[in-house]
Amino acid sequence: MAKITHAQWSSRLTFILAATGSAVGLGNIWKFPYMVGESGGAAFVLVYLICIALVGLPILVAEWMLGRRGQKNPINTMIDVARQEGRSKAWGLVGVSGVLVAFIILSFYSVIGGWSLSYTLGSVTGAFSGQDADAIGELFNGLLADSGTLLLWHSVFMILVIGIVARGVTAGLEGAVRTMMPALGILLLVLVGYGMFSGHFGETLSFMFNPDWSALGGDIILAAMGQAFFTLSLGMGIMLAYGSYLGKEVNLLSTAATVIILDTLFALVAGLAIFPIVFANGLDLSSGPGLIFVTLPLAFGNMTGGVILGLLFFLLLTFAALTSAISLLEPVVETVEERTPLSRTWATLVAGAATWALGIAALLSFNAWADVTLLGLSIFDFLDNLTSKYLMPLTGLAAIVFVGWFLNKEGVVQELKLGSTGALLWHVTSRFIAPIGVIIVFISSL
Ligand code: PHE
């Protein structure tokens, strides 16, 4: 007997919070602000906005539309919608790939979420206080070398994620984003407020926004396009799953625009919060893990109020990671729940345990299994590359190609409530511009 499992978001607002929670993650905090500063300031922001409008927005809308039409997990959604349109069942592979990507990414995303938890605790216990650069670097390397500690924090993080997702869409996901998203906003504003009075806000503004048009080369545009894709959590089954809980009355285009604006604002403001701290302490800029787990802790450890600021910052990072992580587990759980006789709780436990187990392989690649390589990459890098370079772009590409080329055109125009100009714009973007954008990024990343 088929189980009746399908939930629905209780309002457009909670859907926006959940989608924004997925979109706002490590990429917004450790990558975007740095890209802006290094790649032409306002000029880069403009290019990024164009990329996100021409590539990100159409794919986001396409994934939501497919999910909402299918009302099921990504795999069954793709099979059902393809069947309704008289297309091959093989489109179900798009769903399979999406769910697989979410599963794999969560396994190592959780390891990083664990670092964030560990540094949240570290900032409370004063682990960074008065330490010099070598000691802070050693702290991070020491964490990576210590498989037991990594396992502990990875497990704690996964338990939090499982605990939230097991409670379902309404009590679990919505409950979590209703509290964590406002908290995220407040934490960020407090940090920016501090930055404004740090004496280095002007420097930050000119670093981030002075337009430098000469910096804009082909590779910068590619990087902007890649970031636009990654930051919206596309090509990983997430937006298909989130769309499957979406009511018919919600306007997809305006909702997508709202999520994109919030995501971009968050990324820009994150830069305004982070760089004053880096500049005030005369530290070198870097991006990625080095910025978050080495440069910033060094700053926090050597400034007045650093304990509080460090705590607020790592809480911010942890919340951002958690709301993204629950969105990664959801498509996997939805699939297990609907395709097996398991209840929501058991489906979450099974999917969560499998993810946790794969995460152990990822974390061991920093220490005990450092020499184990797959195609010349550590396990962590292999999982990262397989998903972000190959499966993600291909899945997103397939979703937009399906919507652009294989869905009944009038139906799409009606669903998006488009006039004739809008229909033409949508047609050109979904058929040509967005797919070509993804193909270019895909090929150039190989
Ligand atoms: N979209 C998130 C960000 O910008 C990252 C993310 C990736 C979230 C994969 C979920 C899945 O950081």
Task: Report on this structure.
- The structure is a single chain.
- This protein is mostly helical.
- Helix content is 78%, strand content 1%.
- It is built from 18 helices and two strands.
- It has a two-stranded antiparallel ribbon.
- A hairpin with a 2-residue loop joins β1 and β2.
- The longest helix is centred in the last third of the chain and has 34 residues.
- The radius of gyration is 21 Å and the shape is globular.
- Phenylalanine binds next to α1, α2, α10 and α14.
Summarize the structure.
This protein has 446 residues and is mainly alpha-helical.
Secondary-structure blueprint:
Elements: H1 12-23, H2 26-38, H3 42-70, H4 74-84, H5 92-124, H6 133-145, H7 147-166, H8 168-196, H9 201-209, H10 218-231, H11 238-243, H12 252-280, H13 289-301, H14 306-339, H15 344-364, E1 373-374, E2 377-378, H16 379-406, H17 409-415, H18 420-445
Antiparallel strand pairs: 1-2
Helix pairs in contact: 1-8, 1-12, 1-14, 2-10, 2-12, 3-4, 3-10, 3-12, 3-16, 3-18, 4-5, 5-7, 5-13, 5-14, 5-15, 5-16, 6-13, 7-8, 7-14, 7-15, 8-12, 8-14, 9-12, 10-18, 12-13, 13-14, 14-15, 15-16, 16-18
Bound molecules: phenylalanine (PHE).
Phenylalanine binds at residues 22-23, 25-28, 105, 230-231, 233, 236, 324, 327-328.
List all distinct small molecules, including ions and cofactors, that are bound in this structure. phenylalanine
SS-based class: mainly alpha
The rough form would be described as: globular
Question: DSSP helix count?
Answer: 18
